[in-house]
Design goal:
The protein is 61% helix and 0% strand. It is an all-alpha fold.
Length: 170
Amino acid sequence: MTHPAPADPPETPSTSLASLIGHLAATIAAEHFPTGDRAALRRLNPDAPPNLAFYRFAFRHLPQNWENRRTAWTALVAGIALMCPKPHRPDRSVGLTLAETGYSEKRLERLLAAEGDTLHTLLLRAARFLAAKNESCNWTDFAHLLLDRNPEKARLKIARDYYRNLKDHD
């Protein structure tokens, strides 16, 4: 009689999202990832039907039922691709990175207040801003902002990290 191997401890949703984001970023940024696919992912528009590169990537790497939140996943994948070659740094929160790179409070206010299509657009603008500054950040923060049913915790974390690291305030 064989005994089943002990099960791994269940991951918390936050831990599993963090590991998924790490996997997605590492995959898109990998040297062997097709450059044409990476370029196609950069051009994604969450408001438009996805291209084949997205479908190929999504069905291989995104979690089951990603289709239920397609526009959010599209924005997430496009943003990661925009920030390649080094899009993801788990040790640098989004708020910290935005504060240190001079992202304005006005832009932050609009990003954190946005929902739906507007959030997707503003998040991709933030990704382009960071890419232009050659910066990397923890994409798990952005993932929570896009994917959580109640993103208030994600908004608070980004704002807290931004204001704790903003040099020219008061």
